[in-house]
Amino acid sequence: MNISEAARRSGLSAKTIRYYEDIDLVAPAARGDNGYRQYDSKAVEELHFLARAREVGFDLLECRQLLGLQRDTSRQSRHARQLVLEKSRQLQTRIEQLVAMQKVLQAMADRCKGDEGPECAILEVLAAAPEGGESA
Amino acid sequence: MNISEAARRSGLSAKTIRYYEDIDLVAPAARGDNGYRQYDSKAVEELHFLARAREVGFDLLECRQLLGLQRDTSRQSRHARQLVLEKSRQLQTRIEQLVAMQKVLQAMADRCKGDEGPECAILEVLAAAPEGGESA
DNA sequence: GCTTGACCTTCCAGTGACAGGAAGGTTTAC
DNA sequence: GTAAACCTTCCTGTCACTGGAAGGTCAAGC
Questions:
Q1: Does residue B49 belong to any structural domain of this protein?
Q2: How many domains are contained in chain B?
Q3: Taking CB atoms and an 8 Å cutoff, what residues of chain A touch B11?
Q4: Would you tell me which residues 64-123 of chain B have a C-beta closer than 8 angstroms to some C-beta of chain A?
Q5: Less packed terminus of chain B by CB within 10 Å, N or C?
Q6: Range of the domain at A11
Q7: What is the Cα–Cα distance from A41 to A43, expressed in whole angstroms?
Q8: Phi and psi, residue B30, nearest 5°
């Protein structure tokens, strides 16, 4: 099949598939007589594997490692598990950051009247001097 | 004061301050006889305002709008409130995505033995065919 | 006066993971 | 014959910076 069909089946865009080939994340696709890339179901499976890994938050370097494990029949499952647990921790940290940010935003919105006047608690909070006031 | 002191007080890096000047987010700093940028407390306040806005998740375009409101004494606080509420919604969406991703990761880790063997539920999940199985 | 080190300047390149688009070749359908 | 829908490569742009090179300036110590 051509690249657009491989894209449809794998869940990646054709652009992304070419990019992954470019950076040697996947092996170069076979080519037809016309120079078009040709994909078989095995190639599509790898692409789909990558799409899934990206969806749950792995970056391309990690995807490379996961794909290496997937290809390696003598792998050790603890290596995959380590990657997953580390990524989970990273997501947890990021989630906590975003929640904290959102709390600040909510607090600002709650205090702001949001009317036609210029007085605005949001801008006041953003403009507030750093805590630990110096006196000069 | 010079740029490194302004950086220290505002919470931005000197690099970032120059960058903000470069993209016209802040007005060009005054220059001393030696060509060094000079900052007064008013300039530092604006930089600090930007640092705060970035911390709670606004991108530079939004920072530009917020700074515009901050400078405009005839502003309407509802404009600031709209920006905050929209950003809050965006963060909420992002948080939900990350939580969903993390759930998948946790489920994978829970099912994987994580030992010396090759059998690995994580890789199985990532490699699983798209749902809605075709039969060819 | 000289050196050392900490500043400062500008400018260019790189990051991650692609997306958009130009310029051109191929295939398919009518 | 031609239009459209593919495909190819190559270049640029995104976002918000960071790192580094090459070079000018300043303050302190000897």
A1: yes
A2: 1
A3: 130
A4: 66, 69-70, 72-78, 80-82, 84-85, 87-88, 91-92, 94-95, 98-99, 101-102, 104-106, 108-109, 112-123
A5: C
A6: 3-127
A7: 5
A8: -65, 160
Q: Report the C-alpha gap between A70 and B117 in whole angstroms.
A: 13
Mean pLDDT of B68-90: 95
- Chain B residues whose CB is inside 8 A of the A55 CB are 101
Amino acid identity, residue A44?
Answer: V
Residue A132 lies in a domain: no
Given this model, what pLDDT does residue B130 score? 73
Residue type, A38: Q
The CATH number linked to A35 is 1.10.1660.10
Residue carrying structure tokens 């990206």: A54
The predicted pLDDT at position A133 comes to 46
User: Alpha-carbon distance A134 to A74, whole Å?
Assistant: 62
Question: How is residue B46 written in tokens?
Answer: 């604006």
Strand D near-CB residues (< 7 Å), B 106-125:
none
Does some domain include residue A136?
A: no
- Would residue B62 count as lying in a domain? yes
Q: Which chain B residues have a beta carbon less than 8 Å from that of A113?
A: 77, 81
Mean pLDDT, 10 residues at a time, chain A of 136 residues: 96 97 96 96 96 97 96 95 96 96 96 93 90 48
